[in-house]
Design a protein that fits this description.
The protein is mainly β and 620 residues long. The chain contains one helix and 38 strands.
């Protein structure tokens, strides 16, 4: 709830009446989108039937532009009203959901009644609990347009002669609601209610406000009062004074932000107008501006600001921000200050950062991983991953950096080299190795270029010349400086199949992880596939993958679970990696394959076994 400060210079907006110090006006600032329903707010059990007056005054055509669309908005005209207990202002219709409250022209009971404008107001009172109010069908609206509502309601529980009116807070609830369909049943599901407010005799706040979108030419404005307890004395009344109802065309805001990736603070500007209104009808009094980080909650940035632009200096590298604003329209004839709907900006990405995502061998994101960007041996930026395994690292200046990670309970891969940091956001991903990793030199750093790693065998190869289409190279690497390279040779049709065997012992749900990059020809269809297969010691296939792409994949992690039982696995695991043709034709298929950061070990988590002593007792 956002409160509008009182302004003693605007006497026509102040409550008048005998409660010169203790009376209260309630304000509710409901967000424009989404609006709250009665069911959402738990406004109490509703009666099964709705009692309303049988006669409703015929409204004259509604005004246009920024004018107030409510007829008899200040409840001055009680012409044609019935006698007590049903004195209702002209163009308004009463409804009673429970209890037997009386409706009065407030001046018929008080010489100077509580009011916001004129000389009187609509009064609802009873010594017993009640749920009642008044409504008016507003005409001349336009479907799809937004409208802002303001109603002043002041309530007094029992008596104003109390030292602290707050002791009765929550005993009389006030609400305004709108049925965009123009119905007259306050219990209809189409009615949009703002949250109920129960402040008792509080002059520090001003009016209840809400915004809605019209769905047709008519909409119904409901003003509802719920008294929850009896007064406890025949001479004490639980009263609600209603006055100053307005429904105006809303001020529509626009928020402008840069359309490029930003490197830090950026300028935000906003403006608003009421369609079809002139400057003599309405001006913009102030703006509320909020922001959110990613898909997080909206947070206040500027409240009731009169500025039209400001630098957003809360931006953090690697984050995406969205701004939204709503305008407070200052209306004249009659005077009112009401907010319009929120308007959102396009998202703004803050660059000059590395967006690092860290997983373990099973592909699961890891929380709390330490990450460092270094340059010439000096740490330029550091951080820890969040629960999504992500961390943003922003060095002081653009350039080439080395990136390293570490975490207790895992083995670290070699550093990632030559990570480019520019004005944008550079996404990279790395994986940690399990503590029982059985792969020796899975990043190929210990293998001399143009050779095969120790323990690897050539199962088959069909080079078109003396060239080797398999080797460890330094042209492309994920982590470290080297990777295993496979290619289809100068003919574009060479195949190769490599094999190695590992031995694992008592490993919980072992998983094979590797990083691959497929770089096909930009002009020729890739017919070959990268096959990765894992067998047990009896050559039973444990898992496999066939990978193919018609464009550069970038570095991607492949995860192959090898054992789905909670029982620890022991035995041999044979890994085959091949660049092969699927069955059928074998057209030329120029492609380069890079393999790096192979690991084989247990999955994260796992069953925990606890052995407890068992004592057997004989029955007495």
């Amino acid at each position: 709830m956002r409160l509008r400060p009182s302004d003693p210079s605007r006497a026509h907006r102040q409550w008048h009446g005998p409660l010169a110090v203790a009376a209260a006006v309630l304000l509710l600032c409901a967000y424009a989108i989404p609006l709250t329903t009665a069911a959402d707010e738990g406004i109490g059990a509703a009666a099964s039937t709705v009692a309303v007056a049988t006669a409703t005054a015929t409204a004259t055509p509604a005004p246009v532009g920024a004018s107030n669309r409510v007829l008899n908005w200040s409840f001055e005209d009680f012409t044609g009203s019935q006698s007590v207990p049903l004195q209702v202002a002209r163009y308004w219709t009463p409804f009673v959901l429970s209890g037997s409250p009386a409706f009065y022209n407030a001046r018929s009971l008080y010489t100077s009644p509580e009011r916001i404008d004129g000389s009187t107001s609509q009064l609802i009172r009873s010594t017993e609990p009640y749920d009642a109010g008044v409504y008016q069908v507003i005409t001349g609206l336009r479907a799809g347009n937004y409208y802002s509502v303001l109603v002043y309601v002041l309530s007094i529980f029992r008596t104003s002669a109390v030292s602290d009116p707050r002791i009765y807070d929550g005993l009389i609830l006030k609400q305004i609601g709108v049925d965009p369909e123009g119905g007259i049943n306050p219990l209809a599901p189409s009615v949009i209610w703002n949250p109920a407010v129960g402040k008792n005799m509080d002059r520090a706040t001003w009016g209840e406000r809400m915004v809605f979108e019209a769905t047709g030419s008519n909409a119904t404005l409901f003003i509802r009062v719920q008294c929850l307890q009896p007064s406890g004395n025949a001479g004490w009344f639980n009263e609600a004074f209603i006055d100053g109802a307005q429904l105006r065309a809303s001020p529509l805001s626009q928020v402008t932000v840069p359309d490029q990736v930003q490197s830090g603070a950026f300028t935000v500007s906003w403006k608003a107008l009421v369609p079809g209104a002139s400057g003599s009808d309405v001006t913009m009094a102030a703006y509320d501006v909020q922001y959110r980080d990613g898909i997080g909650p909206w947070q206040d940035w500027l409240v009731q600001t009169t500025a039209a632009t400001q630098s957003f200096n809360l931006a953090q590298p690697g984050h995406t921000y969205t701004l939204r604003a709503r305008a407070w329209g200052k209306y004249y004839y009659p005077y009112a200050e009401i907010f319009g709907p929120w308007a959102e900006s396009a998202p703004v990405l803050i660059g000059k950062a590395v967006e690092l995502t860290v997983t373990e061998g099973g592909g699961v994101s890891v929380y709390g991983v330490s990450a460092q960007l270094t340059q010439s041996g000096s740490v330029a930026a550091s951080g820890r991953t969040d629960f999504s395994g992500r961390v943003y690292l922003s060095p002081p200046s653009p350039g080439q950096y080395d990136l390293s990670i570490s975490s207790p309970g895992y083995l670290a891969p070699p550093p990632m080299h030559n990570v480019a940091v520019g004005e944008g956001v550079q996404p990279v991903a790395m994986s940690l190795r399990p503590l029982d990793d059985v792969v020796n030199d899975g990043s190929f750093e210990e293998t001399a270029p143009d050779n095969l790693p120790a323990g690897w065998q050539i199962v088959s190869s069909t080079p078109s010349s003396t060239e080797k289409n398999y080797h460890v190279g330094i042209y492309m690497a994920h982590c470290g400086h080297k990777s295993l390279e496979l290619d289809s040779g100068s003919s574009g049709s060479d195949t190769v199949l490599l094999r190695t065997t590992y031995s694992i012992s008592n490993s919980y749900r072992p998983v094979l992880s590797l990083w691959y990059r497929i770089v096909p020809s930009s002009t020729t269809y890739m017919a070959m596939v990268l096959n990765v297969r894992a067998y047990d010691g009896s050559q039973v296939l444990l898992n496999s993958a066939s990978l193919q792409s018609q464009q550069d994949t970038g570095w991607k992690q492949l995860v192959l679970p090898l054992h789905d039982s909670d029982e620890p696995y022991s035995g041999a695991v044979t890994l085959e990696i091949g660049l092969e043709y699927p069955p059928g034709t074998q057209p030329p298929s120029p492609v380069h394959i890079y393999i790096d950061d192979i690991s084989l070990g247990r999955s994260s988590g796992g069953p925990y076994r606890l052995r407890l002593p068992l004592q057997l007792l004989t029955a007495p």
